[in-house]
Amino acid sequence: MKRVINFSGGKTSAYMTIHEYKEGDLVIFCDTGREHPKTYKFINDFEAHEGIPVIRLKYEGGFRELLNRKKQVPNNFKRFCTVELKIKTARRYLRSLKIIKYQNIIGFRADEPLRVKRRKKMWKQVEDVFPLYEKGVDKKMINEYWETKPYTLEIPSILGNCTLCFMKGTNAIINILSSYPELADEWIEDEERDKIIGKGHTYFKDVTYKKLKQIAQSQLFKSHDLFEIAPAFDCACTS
Fold first, then answer.
1. Are residues 19 and 89 in the same domain?
2. DSSP code for 120
3. β-strands 2-6, 102-105: how paired?
């Protein structure tokens, strides 16, 4: 059975790929187009140092085109972004290669048992496997491993995947924007465009990204170390 390794561009999935890769495996990175520049650098460094090729896929037209087609921004209850930008994009690519039945290798760790338990089987021809979970690999072990390598991901893990994904939660986003206010611009534009082409949806029910940026820039706000911040919710984008 063909093996497909889910590569998110973070330390965990890179560790998994290094330890699980076999000749002939397909290592797939689905680019949302909202990744931090240093994520792309990490992937380049990974390929150069490990000699493992990464297949880079992207939704046709990118993130903004998906919003145009859906006529709204996603949110915690309508997470079509993960499904379209990641899951279905990879699936379409594999089907183009006439790969229907395969083993889907996912980087959920031993300290993420709920993610394994909650994982829903989407296609009967696809077998999900969780090697890090099964082998007892946790976040501490991952971080210790990367301290031994000549390269690493040069940003806090909270900045991985979509830089300001709503699944990270408002607290994390405010802290990110206190250091990187410029990251808010395209997310604010998404919500402004939704007022025109959609129904005025926002990523969060009660607050806009424009407001989150204002809070982050307020003199009353005291930011925290981004390396210590975890996302509020788990997302398949980090698998």
1. yes
2. P
3. parallel
pLDDT of residue 238: 55
Structure tokens at 16: 């998994």
Its pTM stands at 0.91
Q: How far apart are CA 235 and CA 165, in angstroms?
A: 10
Residue 200 lies in a domain: yes
User: Which residue in 31, 11, 27 sits closest to 163, CA to CA?
Assistant: 31
Q: Each residue of 77-112: pLDDT tens digit?
A: 899 999 999 999 999 999 999 999 999 999 999 999
Same domain, 23 and 128: yes
DSSP state of 80: H
Kindly report the backbone phi and psi dihedral angles of residue 2, in degrees, each rounded to the nearest multiple of 5, phi listed first: -65, 145
Q: Exposed/middle/buried for 175, CB within 10 Å: 0-12, 13-18, 19+?
A: buried
- Tens-digit pLDDT profile for residues 50-83: 999 999 999 999 999 999 999 999 999 899 999 9
Q: How many other CB atoms are found less than 10 A from the CB of residue 217?
A: 13
Return d(Cα 202, Cα 194) in angstroms, integer.
Answer: 8
